[in-house]
Design brief:
This protein is an alpha+beta fold. It has one domain: Orthogonal Bundle (Transferase(Phosphotransferase), domain 1). Helix content is 32%, strand content 16%. The protein is built from 2 helices and 4 strands; from the N terminus they run H-H-E-E-E-E. It has a two-stranded antiparallel sheet. Strands 2-3 form a two-stranded antiparallel sheet. A hairpin with a 2-residue loop joins strand 2 and strand 3. It is elongated, with a radius of gyration of 18 Å. The model has no long low-confidence stretch (mean pLDDT 76).
């Protein structure tokens, strides 16, 4: 494991951070921004990350807030949808399973 860390540091010192790691950080920042605004996406998956080019550089965008949930009393839309008790929403392959305590 130490060799991998040494190799990774050598790569970064010569080439900068990996483009994949940089894109992942940008996606995390976008999700954090939504959370700071009181919005939970609830369906993060690869197909909801759109990558565009901005000045020739790839820039990821988080899309499809169709089942997002507001955690504050903000008025986000004229049409508010309520999730029924024990109703499944989201994409099963990307859903975490939680069990009540």
């Amino acid at each position: 494991m130490l060799e991998a860390s040494r190799a990774a540091r050598a790569f970064r010192s010569r080439h900068g951070p990996s483009p994949v790691a940089h894109s992942f950080r940008l996606v995390c920042r976008a999700i954090q921004h939504a959370h700071q605004k009181g919005i939970i996406h609830r369906d993060i998956k690869p197909s909801n990350i759109l990558v565009t080019l901005h000045d020739g550089a790839p820039v990821p965008k988080v899309i499809d807030f169709g089942i997002a949930k507001a955690t504050t009393d903000q008025h986000l839309t004229d049409k508010t949808l309520f999730t029924a008790f024990e109703q499944f929403i989201g994409t099963p392959a990307y859903t975490s399973i939680t069990t009540p305590p």
